Amino acid sequence: MTFASVSAVTVTLLLVGVFFVIMMNLNKVATSIEEDVIIRVHIDLVATDDEQNELKKQIEAIPGVESITYSSKEEELENMIKSLGKEGEVFRLFEQDNPLNDVFVVKAKNPHDTGKIAKQIEKLKHASKVNYGQANVEKLFRFLEISRNVGAVLIVGLLFTAIFLISNTIKITIIARKREIEIMRLVGATNGFIRWPFFLEGLWLGVLGSIIPITVVVSLYKYAHDYLTAKLSNHFIQILSFDPFAYQIAAVLLLMGALIGVWGSVMSVRKFLKA
Amino acid sequence: MIVMQNVYKKYPNGIVAANGIDVHIDQGEFVYVVGPSGAGKSTFIKMMYREEKPTKGTILVNGLNIAKLKNSKVPLFRRNIGVVFQDFKLLPRLTVYENVAFALEVIEESPKNIKRRVMEVLDLVNLKHKARMLPTELSGGEQQRVSIARAIVNSPRVVIADEPTGNLDPDTSWEIMKLFEEINARGTTVVMATHNKEIVNTLKHRVIAIEGGLIVRDEQRGEYGYEN
């Protein structure tokens, strides 16, 4: 009986734990990618300072614009050279006669409005070219939305499976406890007195059941984190760092185990405390 | 003292197990409850310790109307009565000592008093030397003695027994009856449902016969009155 309950908790928490880690990281990656989506507005080469200011004011007036930063063509060149590394040094030649545009970097309050805002900026005078990685961004957003929805569906499914697993275990436990509770009531034990040991037992079983999932999830995450960080470092994508995320997930699993255990055993006793 | 006035009991499945029972049992009496199977004996007994609630009527035990007793007050009421069953109802994982002590632990008696009182009653049922054994290591008669010890450890004024000798051989049954006689001699009311003709006809006490949910006979020093 004890083994069945502990295994039910273990399996449930293992599934929840692994899935939770994946979901949290996917969300982290998605958010960081979303936040990096910007609109680069190339300013007409012939625009005067006044005209640039006018353009800036007009962009600021568009609803949904969060921030706008100016980047001069000198800064742009410097950035380009840096991003290309050693081979970029050749572009130093252009420092004398810089062919690039000055740029406004515009950020939307809601990343999903980026396309809409970009279209409005395109219509403005002195905005020669507007660039936000059109096709890519829209594909990315669609991908992120799908993966979040799929994640939500899977979590709900998982929770139902967990409830099914545990309530089945409880049904078996009830039969084993019927006699015990009957006798306790017979000799005059109050409901609180009867419930207390079962409460502790449930807590204990739940905590016991969370040990394996915590160990597995934390060590797998340690491994996956080291592996992925090395792989992804070139792509400016970050996953959640081991500390504190691993401790948080351990705490969540422990708490869930304890709650499931207590809930299960209190439920199994409750039925016999009514008469 | 146990008083039932106009007690009816109808189960959800429509069976009427008590059809207007009136009875008066004085403190210190010894009463046999007899009757054919399915006549309402068990319900009659169960209503006395509030395992079943009557559909209608009044049941006074030690002056308390248990027909109107709230569920939350049942444990407190049970502490003043002792109950003994055919199947002993011992906790298999606890020792003899622990099984008896359990009834005192639930009322949060001090450990010192628990030990003294448990050893006292185990001595009374002659099982002091087996205090550390598990119920499964004992014979049926010994297990029943443990359950009697548990029933009286709280010094209840009423002991209710539902076929306490039903699972025991004749010799052991007489030993158990001797214990009930002793308990009764100390002033405790004993109400016992039984199918044992020999015992009822030998150890003479008041006999209440129940048939069809009614008391059909109530005699002092009565006979069993049925063929076995």
Please name the two chains that share the biggest interface, counting residues whose Cβ lies under 8 Å from a Cβ on the partner chain: A-B, 15 and 19 residues
Roughly how much helix do the residues of chain A carry, as a percent range?
55-70%
CATH homologous superfamily of chain B - what is it? P-loop containing nucleotide triphosphate hydrolases
Instruction: Characterize the main sheet of chain B.
Output: 6 strands, mixed
What's the CATH class label of chain B?
A: Alpha Beta
The helix/strand order of chain B is: EEEHEEHEHHHEHEHEE
Rg on CA atoms of chain B, Å:
17 Å
Average pLDDT reading of chain A: 80
Strand coverage percent of chain A = 5-15%
Beta-strand fraction estimate of chain B:
25-35%
C-alpha end-to-end distance of chain A? 25 Å
**Mass-distribution shape of chain A:** elongated
| Helix-strand pattern of chain A | HEHEHEHEHHH
Q: What descriptors fit this protein?
A:
heterodimer, A: 275 residues, Alpha-Beta Plaits, 2 domains, 4-stranded antiparallel sheet, elongated, B: alpha/beta, Rossmann fold, 6-stranded mixed sheet, 32% helix
